[in-house]
Amino acid sequence: MSIVANTARAIPARTRAPRQPIEAALTKFASDLSPAKGQQFFDLLVEYVAATLGFDGVVVGEFTTGGTSRFIPIAEHFPSDMTARAIVKTHCDALATAVASPGVERADDGCTDVSLIGTEGRAIGAICGFGKGGSVDRATMRMLFRIIAHRAAAELEQQRAQRELERRDALFIGLIAEAHDVVGVIDASGAFTAVSPAIERVLGYTAASCIGMPVIELVHTVDRPAVEALLGIQASHGYSIEARLQKKDGAWVTMDLSYAEHEDIDGRRIKVVSARDLTDQRRLEDRLRQSQKTEIIGRLASGIVHDFGNILMVVGCHADLMRLRTDPDDPRHADVDAIQAAVSRGADLARQLLAFSKHREFEMRRMDLNTSIEQLAALSRRLVGSAIKLETNLSPNARYIAADATQIEQIVLNLTLNARDAMPNGGKIMFETAPVGEGDVPPVVAEVPDDYVCFSVTDTGCGIREDVLPHIFEPLFTTKQDGSGTGIGLATVHDIVMRHGGSIEVESKEGQGATFRVYLPRTICPTRKETCKPRD
Fold first, then answer.
1. Which helix (H) or strand (E) holds 20?
2. Is the pLDDT of residue 295 over 70?
3. Residue 246, SS3?
4. Among the four 148, 274, 315, 380, which has the fewest Cβ within 10 Å?
5. 279-358, what's its fold?
6. Backbone angles phi, psi at 459, to 5 degrees
């Protein structure tokens, strides 16, 4: 027998049930079930239906949505009869299929069911009882089933809505937890009430330690007025500024700080702050600017270097003629020497500019970096002079790389000359090679550290000022005041390293020397030979 909750059927007066049993059943329903919520309601419901209507077993469940519809029990009451449970399970499974296919006939197997109709008019579940149900007459059973089904459908819909909210919350929390950006909720005073785990990766603080911490405490004093103004905006739309935030270790990181207000379902205003680390973006922008400067200098150099060389040749020839026409003791002889020295320096500069501007293809081969450095170190001892001591510390685990040998020699010589110029009163230069391990390495290297070798040149010279460090690889940038610097050496090193697919970084403090670290790719195959494409 099947009963549908939203189907009303007139009951003849002669078959109406006495009012007293109905009122007793309704009173019990109102007192025992109506105040209950959630799972407790359904547990009480099956016991109530079994006791009030006289069934041997009762089950209430919901129909799944999406794909093949199935009946999922929520609560059941089968005191002892396992056969009844099996019969009801089979009946409910068929009932779930009938929801998707209304034309399916249900067998008369001793089960009485009522569908739970949702607000959209579709069956979302069912209550099913097994047995004759002789405690009340049929009219009372139909009426009670309709009342019970209506209340059960409302409770099931609320339970489903709660599950959907929990699912969305879990999804949202998962997305926030995995996001690279720091996301936090702040109170009216600007202190964190919740913050995403990303804050530990970006700033070094644990999420728990940030609860109650004012956001403004993390902001650089120079940037605080702008951040305070941002947090004072009363609007639901997002606004953002750039600000420096302090990491747990004391370092500063530039971040894009966004702020927005949202309203929850209770009408409360929620303030949300998010911060995105701009370090990688700034690094890419710097590399782009460096590449653009290099391209501009290269085009400029290739356009004028030949004309410049011709001018120097004319000047040099006239200087040679003047030398031939003057005696060694002639006072003008010193002027001629100065002219020739200037021509020589100009010619060297022209050659460097020409080499810098040439888009020559690299011949990539497997080469022994340690052997190359040992040979160049022996050569460089005469180049740097006796006042500077050269030492090497070369690892056998960082021996082979894939590179153009001539260009690697250019890197070593340029870094050596740069170190020599930083130590006019003598000092020490250390050449080192080592495999790349975990730690603070450039991003391109950190992705696959085992594929790179680190070569470093350390000096005990005057060091590099903090304001100069960002510019040392720029073409034509030099800090030498006597005019001896061309500003091409380090720019050339940077260009060669980048074209090899490597990376270079410098660590220095004024008065404490400097360390240049060059990361170069290892050779993949002993017989591998590649050709690097020229710059566009």
1. helix 19-28
2. no
3. strand
4. 315
5. Helix Hairpins (1.10.287)
6. -125, 165
